[in-house]
Amino acid sequence: MTPITANEKLKPVDAVTIGVGWTGALMAEGLTAAGLNVVGLERGGARFTVPDFQAPTIHDELRYSTRKGMMQDNTREPVTLRHAPDGVAQPVRRWSAFLPGTGLGGAGVHWNGQTWRFSPEELRLRSFSEERYGKNFLDADLCVEDWGISWADMEPYYSQFETLCGTAGKAGNLNGKIMPGGNPFEGPRSKEYPTPAMQQGYMDALFGKAAAGLGYTPFIQPSSNMTQSYVNPHGIRLNPCMYCGFCERFACEHFAKASAQTTILPVLLKRPNYELRVGAQVLRINLDSTGKRATGVMYADAHGRIFEQPASLVVLSSFSFNNPRMLLLSGIGQPYDPRTRKGVVGRNYAYQTMSTVEVYWDKDIVTNPFMAAGASGTVISDFAPTVFDTGPLGFIGGSYILGGTTNGRPIEYHPVPEGTPKWGRAWKEAVVRHYNHTGHVNVNGSSMPSWNNFLDLDPTYTDAWGQPVLRMTFDFPENDMRMSRYSHAKGKQIAEAMGGRAISEVIYGRPFDVTKYQTTHNTGGAIMGSDPSRSVVNRYMQSWDVSNLFIPGASCFPHNSAYNPTATLAALTLMSIDKIKSEYLKAPGPLVHV
Amino acid sequence: MAAGAALSQTVPSVPDASVERGALLASLGNDHGAGACASCHAFNGAADPSGGFPRLTGLSGPYIRHALDDFAEGSRKNVLMASISKALSAQERADAGAYYSSVYAPVPPAAPVSRDLLEEGRVLAVVGVNDQQLVACSACHGPFGRSPTPMIPSLGGQYARYITWQLGEFRDGRRSSGAAVMAGFAHALNDRQVEAVSDYFQRAPGPVGPLPKSLPDAAR
Questions:
Q1: Residue A283: CB partners within 8 Å, gap ≥ 6?
Q2: B144 contact residues in A (CB cutoff 8 A)
């Protein structure tokens, strides 16, 4: 690796976070509350609801959605992609399939607010699979792992995050008691959601009715878009959501979507022991001569000057797939090698496996697709991971199935049936005919790690600072395609029961098409576990190799669930913070000994 | 399952509103105990600056009808308007809305107030305050005091004392209809901010309604 020389060495601080999104802000809040001096380094700009997210400019669909105004600048920091370890990766110059955020608040600014807990058995997925289906059940190309934590460990932190966000929903399993109106397949929760579930749109209700008619259990999706005025434990007020339909890819102008800006930063930024530095591109984590201890970070500011920021504790809290990249750039941990299947950094990269069905009604069904929240929608979890028997079906994993309309914006949203011309008068007439009379069933599927899917540094392409870019090697494993075909058929069955005149369907399968938006739930690459030879961090997000380095984020997921990842990565971060406060700060060193 | 509730939601049928019938109501009231609207709100909707009666000019017909519904059912608590609204049929409420959305009234000049206060009000109205989770009023109520949305009222030209009163009603829970956000905003605003934003909007160029047909062409 090319050495980096600092123009200036700064005064040491207690802790530094690389990135100030959900995990960076949560960590900084916890550490400053414990009395540490913390510096947050954010590569993007500062931005706040007032004045940066105000209407009508925040509803500029061309800027924020079409041109991806809130995303990592891939003219400066692209990633490359190939489908198999023997392929040649090409740069992704325009984000489409997934949308890594940048700027203060990170991707937590442009998320939809879907706030899910994973299924309890997913946290021990390898053991679950072996106990239930035998040791030879999983496909040979899969490297499914246990997470090294239990539901009992996680539950309090899920609740803590929901309380921070004011998450709206209805409990389906309250302390083991199945509750009507909620998700009966969720793990037992200790508390009801802080606020009542969202309003149900007409199309969502049609989905719920069709699903219930088929014997499934529909419920309203848990959402961190507010349903009422809510004051969180930091004393910060969130306002009720207006269902404006500009949620995913946009920031909320109403303080109605939970984000670092609306739940943490107002208190954090006022603390004298916190300093936010924006436009700070971290290039490297520095190690001491033993390689076992981080001494701080190197970063470039907006002028291109290089600073060394010494710190006793380093938190690597950048966007999920940038975490393993920073480890590789810094020479921390053994890089994963697909030929030997040895090494840990970059392994278990996973995604999600999506499909969708569109339902076209006649004009008597009016769906008002512009009138929805990011996380409104009605869902069934009957086919979620580990909650139904997949043994006879020959796969591990599952999907949640969501009916709803959201983000029905003018540029992007033009549902037309198959066979409609792609342009011209006939297309325009079809758009007018169908815009307000179309519904969606989305099938959100899990993603199992494969020995063939991983992250490493690209041998050819470099970023604007001359450092190798991240190379993704990914295609959907056969297990996930079997799962997706099965789940999709269930989604299609519901769609057909919704009484439309016609349907059309899309399954996002092999080869992975990076030009079609599927999901921004990129996970893995710096996974957690209880065995240092198979994981990068322990259960407290602490690096096995460098004990004063913590790496929170979805990069720690050993596989990806069907469910959206934010609540899980936040809960893990909150668990880590508790452990850092109660043990690490008193006696810095490894929190788990093996 | 909540599906049933949403499925049964129906849009209430809107009677064909009549400006002419509305004009009669405004001037005479009806036989069921509703007094003449104009006795407080004036024939041109301009009411007066006392703050007890809002300017109706420039509000949409459906918004006025909805307000009457709210008074009748109690989500806006006002003894006088409750009794009047209850005495109006759905048709009459729609007619009254149609009439007042059709009238013209210039915004009368307001007494001078301090420039600092007005500037503070302008910032609240068009920028917002991040630390108080206050969105700019204009995000919903429209730029320049004019709402682009029929069911959200224009605030330009509305009397400051009326706006101040209504923010208090939202804050104290006597006005729970309409946007659920308003209670939170009303709680977050301090007294000076309420005064500032109210004074600003009274002086903002609000809607004056359609120009009367009787004006000579040159004046139009």
A1: A4, A297, A298, A299, A300, A306, A329, A465, A467
A2: none
